[in-house]
Amino acid sequence: MNSMLRRGIAAVGLAALLAGCTSTPAADPSGSPATTPGKLAVPTVKHVPRTADSYPFSAADHARVPVDLASHGFVEEEYFLSGNANVYTLADGTLAIEESDIPYTNRILVRRPSDPAKATGVVLVDIYNASNGYDIEDMWRRLYSNILLEGHTYVGVTSKPINVDALYQFDLERYQELSWYDEPEASCPRHELIDFATAGPWVDVPCTETGLAWDILTQVGTAIRDPQASEQILGDIDVKSVFLIGQSQSGTYLNTYVNNFHNQVTQDNGGTPVFDGYLTAAGNWLERSIRDGEYQNGGSAENNQTGMVPGPATPVDIDVPWMIVDSESDTALFQAQATKERALDDQTRVWQISGTGHTYSWSPVVPDNAELLKAGRPERVFPEVYTPYPMEPSMIAATQALINNHQNSTALPATKWFERDAEGNLVRDDNGNVLGGVRYGLMELALAKFLGFAKPGDMNGVAEPITAEQFQQRWSDRADYLSKQSEFDDTMIEAGYLTPDGKAIFAERANLVLDEIGIPA
């Protein structure tokens, strides 16, 4: 794929862009040794205002292509949440407390409609990805166009001590209150910054504990549910549905939370879920270690420095919808078994999306490189090539499926696995595209061989367009092709695997590939 198509892909992003006090802890009715009342306590909320000299890391107007949220009727606000969290262990195969009531202060970044009357009441809680050592807003860049269009509320949550270190380096005066420390202050130096170039993104920050994340996530949910805290965070928005979402490493956090905490938290909350559903994006069937240095389900530090471990063999039985969306490149990027067909709970669906890359490095809404350097992190390196086949429409449709199921009891669209041969290899059609999974018009009416990965480890993929001669053998002109693509994608909308704005994204991408092939407009 040449530079003309790469420039066109970037242009698509631009087009889309423009188109209190802590509560009294709740009682623990279960008496379970695995949890304490404090895990469901409402954290203290502190607004951190923007000033002429200080603004949030990953602020929308400091993106690679700045986003004017006000022009979309949105506001962006940052808050610190403070409370106490437990650290858990699975050493004996059963969830239990390893350390209790560790004080923490964490940050959330909120983007919501400024007019509550225009808000849908859908709150998407995004676990920030830590794979590059800073708060990566993976699900914002996947869903932002739909969030702004529909009027959903987005809440990003810092998820790991290495990300807090990046915030310290970005603006220590602003972020010095943040704490994931599990050692007494007298014995542990605070704010000792990491040399990221030497340490890398997987380092365990001294005196901190990643395992605080599970109660922190629960308490973000309780804050959104609590009338007083919610008013501080969301204003007068009427909260109707709260979903926990995450991509890649954050998807493994989400899997860990659902498999190990959802049912316990629901039981301890009197049978009411804190989160109404879940979306794992490009995280497959992997989990995050339950705490630093401990690996469940047969994982170990020796075979995985990232702290990711296999998911359980038996699916968890949950009472809320859980959507899992895999990209094609995940089959090469992750452990082999993680994307293969497995047993599922009745409330869980897996959509595997042929032709898609694990990430979208050219997204216009990633932080500007100047922001990363300020946070002590390397500049983002943009790929020379990658597939124009987008993952975003699938993510948008999966989110809508969660909303429809929770609010209207609409059945979740069926699971779609990649087709594999007897040896477990992906099976491809005559155009070289993977069979099975969720396939949209751009693939069924193939303008290219869309590969989720050019080689193992590649996260962006590549495409090999057909020739003009091949096009003319199949369709009469551009209008003929686009009409047939539209008809096919209408069937995908009806089946629940696509939304109208997702269909429009596919049409834009089709036009880019048609330009590359040389088909007249």
Features:
Rossmann fold; 521 residues; alpha/beta; two-stranded antiparallel sheet
Produce the secondary structure layout:
Elements: H1 3-18, E1 44-48, E2 74-89, E3 96-113, E4 122-127, H2 138-150, E5 153-157, H3 161-170, H4 172-175, H5 196-199, H6 213-225, H7 227-234, E6 241-247, H8 249-268, E7 277-281, E8 286-288, E9 308-310, E10 322-327, H9 330-333, E11 348-353, H10 369-374, H11 392-408, H12 441-444, E12 448-451, E13 462-465, H13 468-474, H14 478-495, H15 500-517
Q: How far apart lie the N and C ends?
A: 20 Å
User: So how many helices?
Assistant: 15
Indicate the CATH topology.
Rossmann fold
The proportion of residues forming helix, as a percent range, comes to: 25-40%
Which strand-content bin applies to the residues? 15-25%
The averaged pLDDT comes out at 90
Largest sheet: 9 strands, mixed
Number of separate domains: 1
| Net shape | globular
Q: How are the strands of the largest sheet arranged?
A: 1-2-3-5-4-6-7-10-11
Quick description:
This protein has 521 residues and is α/β, with parallel strands linked by helices.
Please describe what this structure looks like:
With 521 residues, the chain is an alpha/beta fold. The protein is globular and about 75 Å long. It has one domain (21-439): Rossmann fold (3-Layer(aba) Sandwich), CATH 3.40.50. The chain starts with a helix and ends with a helix. A hairpin with a 6-residue loop joins β2 and β3. The chain has helices spanning 3-18, 138-150, 161-170, 172-175, 196-199, 213-225, 227-234, 249-268, 330-333, 369-374, 392-408, 441-444, 468-474, 478-495, 500-517; strands spanning 44-48, 74-89, 96-113, 122-127, 153-157, 241-247, 277-281, 286-288, 308-310, 322-327, 348-353, 448-451, 462-465. The strands form three sheets. A nine-stranded mixed beta sheet has the order 1-2-3-5-4-6-7-10-11, with helices on both faces. A two-stranded antiparallel sheet has the order 8-9. It has a two-stranded antiparallel ribbon with strand order 12-13. Helices cover 31% and strands 17% of the residues. The protein is built from 15 helices and 13 strands. The longest helix is centred in the middle third of the chain and has 20 residues, at 249-268.
